[in-house]
Hints:
This protein is α+β, with helices and mostly antiparallel strands. 57% of the residues lie in helices and 10% in strands. It is built from 11 helices and 6 strands. A hairpin with a 2-residue loop joins β3 and β4.
Amino acid sequence: MDHLHQLKQLIANQQHRTFSCELDGKVVWVKRAETNAPTRWRWLSALLSRVNRNPLYMPTHAPAGAAAIADEARRLRHLAALGVPVPEVIAAEDDWIALADAGPSLKDWLLDPRRSEREKSLVLNEAAIALAKLHQAGRWHGRPALRDMAWDGEAICFLDFEEDPARVLSQEQCQIRDLLVFVHGLYRYLPAQSPLIAQAICNYKAQAPEPIWQRSVQLVDSMWAVYRLSQLLAPFAGKDVRQAYYALRFLRSPEARRRSRMRWLLLTALGLCFTLANHID
C-alpha cells in the first residue's frame, strides 16, 4: 500500500483538524484545511493600523481552504531548499498536508515539569539563534510563537507556515513582527522575572541583523500610548495584555523610558491642575 493511500485512509477515519499518526514506523503530523472567515477583530486591526500608521497592526490571516494548504506546502518546500530547518512535506492534497515529526514544541518543553532550567535555557537560546539566522538569511516565519517551533534534542525546527505577513508587510516589517511575537511568547510561558527571557533575547540580538533590532526598538518606542494603556490594564486584564506589557517594557529604549516618565508627569500635573481648579471654583 503506498503512502498516499495509507494517509487518505487514516484521514478518513479522523475527526480532528490536526493529528499525528504512524507511517512506516515514523510519526507524521496531518493538518486539514481550515475555513477562515473575516472577523470583527480583523476589521478592527486594519482600522487601528490606518489610524496609528503602524503596519504591524494589519491583520495577516492565512487564506482559507485549499489555498492555505497549497501556500504552506510551497513555503515549506522553498524554505527547505534554502536550508531553513522546517519539517519535510510527506504529502499534500487540496484539503490536507502531512509533515514529518520534528519533536516536541518549545511550549511543551517549557511546560514539562521533568525539564531542568538548564535544558529550558539551552532550547530557548537555540530557538533565539535559529530565528536570528533566519532573519540573517533574509527570511521570516510569520508567527514564531513557541508552539510553532520544535526541538528534537539536536536542532530547532520551524512549524506552521499558514500565516504569511508578506502579503501586507515588507521583509523588514515581517522580521520585526517575528521578534515581537517571539518575545511575547517567552512571557507567555515563563514567569516575567525569569532570567531565561533576557538570555534568549540577548542571544537573538547578538546574531540578528542589527537594523532589525534597532527598528524593533524604535517601533516599540513609538507605541508609548499602547504601552501605558497596557501598563494600566495589566493588573486587571487577562494574560495577553500582561504579556504584551512585559514584552513592550523589555524592548523599550532607555530614552523612551525617560520621555515616557516625563509625559506621565506632565499628564499627572495637568490632571491635578484641573482637579484643583474645580475645587476652587
